[in-house]
Write a structure and sequence with these properties.
Blueprint lengths: L2 H8 L3 H8 L7 H13 L6 H8 L4 E8 L8 H17 L2 E8 L3 H11 L4 E4 L7 H9 L3 E4 L11 E4 L1 H14 L5 E5 L5 H16 L9 E3 L4 H12 L7 E4 L2 H13 L9 E5 L16 E4 L2 H17 L7 E4 L2 E3 L11
Parallel strand pairs: 1-2, 1-3, 3-4, 4-5, 5-11, 6-7, 6-8, 8-9, 9-10
Antiparallel strand pairs: 10-12
C-alpha cells in the first residue's frame, strides 16, 4: 500500500491525504478522520519520500559536519546532541541526514542542498565568532538553528546556547571562595564562540577579585584527554604551579586528573578541578557521588530543544528568529577542596 493507492481509494488528492495524515490545520476534521480510518484499515504507513512528493517537503533535517583541521566536531558531546535531536525528529516524522564535508566545500554543499531541497532545515554546529554560514543560510532562505552563538555576526538568526559566561563565572567564583588564587584555564579553541565566552568570564571574575591573570596558566586546544593531560603536566611541572583548574570538557578534565596523579598529588586536596559538560550518555561523572565538581548542562536536552525549534520554524516560516539560553547547574563533586594551606 502506498500513498497513491490510498488516495485513489479515498478519491482524494495525494496532497490532501498527506496533509490529513500529518495533522495540517487546513484539512477538516471530518476528512482527517476518514483518511485515518482508511489508512488503518489498509495498513498504510507513510514514509518520508511519499510525504515529500505530496507536500513539497523532504521531511528531513540536515547536519553538515566539516572535516576540519582546526576543530574536530565528532566527539561524545556531538553524539549526545544528535541523540537528543533524534528524539524530536522521530516524534515529528522527520529523518536525520548527516553530511561530512571539507571546510572549503561547505558553501557549495549548502547551496546544493538548498537547490535540491533535500532537507527542510539545517542545524548549524560549532559556530565561530564570525561564522559565514549564518549569512549564507539567511541568503538562501533555508530554515536553520545554530547550536551556540556567533558573537561577531550582526544578523538576526535562531539559536540555542548554554550560558557559558555565567557557568564559568560561577565556577571561577566557587574556586575563589575556596581560597584558590592560582587558577588555570584549560579551554577549547578560542576562535569558537563558546570558548571565547568562557575565557572572558574566567578573566573578568579573577580580575574583579584582584587576582592577576597568568598567561602561562591558560591553554586553548581541541577538547581531548591528551590535550588536557599535556596542558596540565606543563603547568604542574613549574615550582609555583596552579592549585586549581577550570576545564572546558570532561575529556580534558580526565587528562588533567591523570597529570595530577602522575605528580603524586591528590585530587581535591592538593589540586582542584571544575569541569563543564559532565552529563554525557557514555561518559558519566561517577555513579552515586560525582567525581568532578562541574557546571552541568545536558547536551542531549539541548539537542531535543534545538530540533523542536527548527521543526517549529519549518512549520511556521513567518515567525521571527527563535532564541533560547540554557543555564548550567553547579554540581559539587569530590574534585574540589580548599586551597592548600587554608
Amino acid at each position: 500500500m502506498n500513498l497513491k493507492k490510498l488516495s485513489d481509494h479515498l478519491k482524494l488528492s495525494q496532497t490532501t491525504v498527506s496533509r490529513a495524515l500529518n495533522g495540517y490545520p487546513e484539512v477538516s476534521e471530518k476528512t482527517r478522520q476518514r483518511v485515518l480510518l482508511a489508512a488503518q484499515e489498509m495498513n498504510y504507513t507513510p514514509n518520508a519520500r511519499a510525504k515529500g512528493l505530496a507536500t513539497g517537503r523532504a521531511h528531513a533535517i540536515g547536519h553538515i559536519i566539516p572535516v576540519s583541521n582546526q576543530h574536530e566536531m565528532v566527539n561524545p558531546v556531538f553524539g549526545d546532541f544528535l541523540s537528543g535531536a533524534g528524539v524530536s525528529y522521530a516524534a515529528a516524522g522527520y529523518e536525520m541526514v548527516i553530511n561530512l564535508v571539507e571546510d572549503q566545500q561547505q558553501e557549495s554543499l549548502y547551496r546544493d542542498i538548498c537547490a535540491r531541497r533535500s532537507v527542510d532545515g539545517i542545524i548549524v554546529h560549532g559556530p565561530t565568532m564570525d561564522d559565514g554560514r549564518i549569512k549564507l543560510l539567511n541568503q538562501l532562505g533555508l530554515p536553520f538553528v545554530v547550536h551556540g552563538r556567533a558573537s561577531s555576526v550582526d544578523a538576526r538568526y535562531s539559536w540555542l546556547d548554554t550560558n557559558n559566561a555565567r557557568a564559568f563565572e560561577r565556577a571561577s567564583q566557587f574556586l575563589l571562595d575556596l581560597g584558590h588564587r592560582k587558577i588555570a584555564l584549560v579551554n577549547g579553541l578560542e576562535h569558537m564562540d563558546y570558548a571565547f565566552r568562557r575565557r572572558e568570564a574566567y578573566c573578568k571574575t579573577l580580575e574583579n577579585s584582584g587576582v592577576s591573570i597568568n598567561p602561562d596558566w591558560m591553554s586553548s586546544d581541541e577538547m581531548t584527554e591528551i590535550n588536557g593531560y599535556l596542558s596540565a603536566r606543563r603547568m604542574l611541572d613549574t615550582p609555583d604551579h596552579p592549585t586549581a583548574f577550570l576545564s572546558s570538557s570532561m575529556m580534558m578534565a580526565i587528562g588533567i586528573r591523570r597529570a595530577i596523579h602522575e605528580k603524586g598529588l591528590e585530587l581535591g586536596r592538593d589540586v582542584s578541578i571544575i569541569t563543564h559538560d559532565d552529563d554525557l550518555g557514555y561518559l558519566k561523572n561517577g555513579h552515586d557521588v560525582p567525581i568532578f565538581t562541574a557546571t552541568r548542562s545536558s547536551v542531549r536536552e539541548a539537542g531535543i530543544r534545538a530540533a523542536e525549534m527548527l521543526i517549529s520554524l519549518i512549520r511556521n516560516p513567518a515567525q521571527g528568529p527563535l532564541t533560547e539560553i540554557l543555564e548550567a547547574e553547579l554540581i559539587i563533586g569530590a574534585s574540589t577542596g580548599p586551597a592548600p594551606g587554608r
